[in-house]
Amino acid sequence: MAETRDTVVRDSPAGGRGPRLTRKADELFRGLWASLFYSQRTMGKAVLLCSSDRREGASTVACSLAAVGSEPAGVARIALVDCNFRTPRLHEMLGVREAPGVADAVLNGTAPEEAIQRLSASLDVYAAGKVAGRTLDVLRSDNLRPFLENLCSAYDHVLIDTPAVNQFPDAQVLAGIVTDVVLVAHTERTPREAVAQARKRIEAAGAKVLGLVLNHRRYPIPRFLYRRV
Ligand SMILES: Nc1ncnc2c1ncn2[C@@H]1O[C@H](COP(=O)(O)OP(=O)(O)O)[C@@H](O)[C@H]1O
Ligand SMILES: [Mg+2]
Question: Does residue 55 line the site of ligand 1, with CB under 6 A?
């Protein structure tokens, strides 16, 4: 389980390059990165970032993890992929174009290379692309699995943003392809039952929940005291 503090991560201004991390947030995300990828917990190279309900922080955590994992530049090759075809946000958060992206490659035969948007020597972003209400077509397409598998061959790590597990079946479909999942919950808003239900759904799809990120954690009293109470 990892904790991320409220207010330490916020959206960068429009056209920015993702959430700005304070030093503390940077440290927390580096810890999460290490526990995901340096502890042999992951089974493959790809990880799905899922929340149980909307606005708990899945996209923010995906961007923040990509940011820390891609430093220092040039060491690891990371793909950050928007598979939230309903309310895609990564392009806005990162200031890149929305299309062509995953949906174009999967549905319209666009060459996957055309969907690459390079943010740094280590980080490529794949936006959701032009979905035009065809979310289920993207998810049902026989091209989706090979598209994601090719990313796993081309990169060291693939981080995939998804819609909320308890609201749409999308994350479950993706969990049938990518079997390592990190759940993100809003510390103060997400009921325990919602996390349990999200977990059940992920596991029913044959995937494994690697851990839970408690996002928006507040420390109204100093952390060292908090730990003692
Ligand atoms: N740790 C955090 N601290 C402060 N704001 C956050 C944090 N995580 C997410 N947010 C904000 O909460 C909102 C929802 O986050 P988002 O990542 O889009 O959620 P989701 O992808 O689960 O719908 C965004 O405005 C985002 O900037
Ligand atoms: Mg999101």
Answer: yes
3-state secondary structure of 122: coil
pLDDT in tens, 90-145: 999 999 999 999 999 999 999 999 999 999 999 999 999 999 999 999 999 999 99
What are the residue boundaries of the structural domains of the chain, listed by start?
2-226
Residues whose Cβ atom is located within 5 A of ion ligand 2: 58-59
Ligand 1 test: best mutation among 8, 55, 60, 190, most atoms within 8 Å of CB?
60
Could you say which ligand is closest to the alpha carbon of residue 54? Answer: 1
Contacting residues for 206 by C-beta, under 8 A, at least 6 apart: 175, 176, 179
Residue nearest to atom 15 of ligand 1 (CA): 57
Region of 7 on the Ramachandran plot (φ > 0 left; ψ -120 to 50 alpha; else beta): left
CA 128 from centre of chain: 13
CATH number for the segment(s) 2-226: 3.40.50.300
Q: Is the CB of 63 under 6 A from ligand 1?
A: no
153 pocket-lining for ligand 1 (C-beta < 6 Å): no
Report the C-alpha gap between 115 and 61 in whole angstroms: 22
| This prediction's pTM | 0.91
Pairing of strands 2-5, 123-126: unpaired
